[in-house]
């Protein structure tokens, strides 16, 4: 890993940029083209431009997916009993500790990708702020995703997160719901956050020698297809052999199904919420956006943060149609798990069964695939 060794010693010595100035009328920023209600937000416009152009390259690709994953893995590191700083950037600053946690497998690649940008802009934003900013910007690279608010002013992290706070694909549903519940998330919010994030995501470390394996058919679109694909009756494992730890059978060649996703879609406590998002794009996007914003405040005092949401670019509108059944699949292949509502009527895509291509992998600053 290229980045990790440099960050810990560097960011702990940085001064914290003051962002608690009182709100004023909209002012012209020093760049002469942007305006901001709070002048402290002006410094973020060049950071956002750099992230969009040089980190995400204006795509809903591997780097954007990784930035969103990092939001969750950093923020969930807090517990009423075990402690932790939540959304404070500790996963970057104290990476030598947190990357040893089994649930953070693969985050080293994400940090190698984002790390040089965290260091580059360290005099402007703290690691905690950068992770949340990059996550918000990553979403608007993906058609259909919500534009979520961003608040600046997180202090430098003081310590590593305690271990065993990030839910894993091997966890049972009770364990997952209790972990989220301990920091104020309802079962419905868990479905929105987990399902929504997996709409634009893939797995690098679930199946050995398989990288960028999508969780659904449309990993570059923030859509409700994930809520259909996970409910299809599984027929095979990704590598054509037996299950890996945390893997369940998938129904679509080229995709991977996490055991935890399959259980969330079928458990009586969460099944109806899962099904309710099928073809409800606006509902799903709103619920997901609210959940991610809630994650961003874990361990923080919202009243002490500055609202800099105006620096987040406009969201890309949904450029796709409703969810569908993949070729050869129909309602007969759905594991119906919600007795309270009829499953939506969906069209089956024509043609033979398809194999979904892997997500192209990002290249880190060293020139190696990340």
UniProtKB/TrEMBL annotation:
Does the record bear Disulfide bond in its keywords?
Answer: yes
Question: How far does the signal peptide extend, from start to end residue?
Answer: 1-21
**Which residues does Ca(2+) 2 bind?**
199, 216, 218, 223
Its cofactor is: heme b; Ca(2+)
Residue ranges occupied by any Plant heme peroxidase family profile domain in the UniProt entry: 64-312
Question: Which InterPro entries would you find in this protein's record?
Answer: Ccp1-like, Haem_peroxidase, Haem_peroxidase_sf, Ligninase, Ligninase_C, Peroxidases_AS
Q: So where does heme b get bound?
A: 198
Q: Name one GO molecular function term.
A: metal ion binding
Main enzyme class: oxidoreductase
What are the record keywords, sorted?
Calcium, Disulfide bond, Glycoprotein, Heme, Hydrogen peroxide, Iron, Metal-binding, Oxidoreductase, Peroxidase, Secreted, Signal
Record EC number? 1.11.1.-
Q: List the disulfide bonds.
A: 29-42, 41-308, 60-142, 272-338
Q: Which family does it belong to?
A: Belongs to the peroxidase family. Ligninase subfamily.
Name the chain's protein.
Peroxidase
Q: Which organism is it from?
A: Hypholoma sublateritium (strain FD-334 SS-4)
């Amino acid at each position: 890993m290229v980045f990790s060794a440099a960050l810990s010693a560097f960011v702990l010595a940085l001064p914290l940029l003051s962002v608690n100035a009182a709100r004023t009328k909209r002012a012209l920023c020093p760049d002469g083209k942007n305006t901001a209600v709070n002048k402290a937000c002006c410094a973020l416009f060049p950071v956002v431009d750099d992230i969009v152009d040089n980190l995400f390259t204006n795509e809903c690709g591997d780097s954007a997916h990784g930035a969103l994953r990092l939001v969750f893995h950093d923020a969930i590191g807090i517990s009423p009993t075990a402690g932790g700083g939540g959304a404070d950037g500790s996963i970057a600053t104290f990476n030598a500790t947190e990357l040893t946690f089994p649930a953070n497998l693969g985050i080293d690649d994400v940090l190698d990708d984002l790390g040089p940008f965290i260091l580059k802009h360290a005099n402007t934003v703290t690691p905690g702020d950068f992770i949340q900013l990059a996550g918000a910007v990553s979403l608007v690279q993906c058609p259909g995703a919500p534009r979520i608010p961003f608040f600046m002013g997180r202090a430098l992290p003081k310590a590593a997160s305690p271990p065993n706070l990030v839910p894993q694909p091997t966890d049972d549903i009770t364990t997952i719901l209790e972990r989220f519940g301990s920091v104020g998330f309802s079962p419905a919010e868990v479905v929105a956050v987990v399902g929504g994030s997996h709409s634009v995501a893939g797995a690098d470390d679930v199946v050995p020698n398989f990288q960028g394996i999508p969780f659904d058919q449309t990993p570059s679109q923030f859509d409700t297809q994930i809520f259909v694909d996970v409910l299809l009756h599984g027929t095979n494992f990704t590598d054509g052999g037996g299950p890996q730890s945390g893997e369940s059978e998938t129904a679509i060649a080229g995709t991977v199904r996490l055991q935890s996703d399959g259980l969330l879609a079928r458990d009586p406590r969460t099944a109806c919420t899962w099904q309710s998002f099928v073809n409800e794009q606006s509902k799903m996007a709103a619920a997901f956006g609210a959940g991610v914003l809630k994650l961003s405040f874990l361990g923080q005092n919202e009243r002490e943060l500055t609202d800099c949401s105006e620096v987040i670019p406009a969201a890309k509108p949904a450029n796709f149609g409703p969810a569908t059944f993949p070729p050869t699949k129909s309602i007969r292949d759905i594991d119906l798990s919600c007795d309270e509502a009829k499953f939506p009527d969906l069209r089956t895509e024509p043609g033979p069964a398809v194999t979904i291509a892997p997500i192209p992998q990002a290249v880190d600053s060293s020139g190696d695939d990340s």
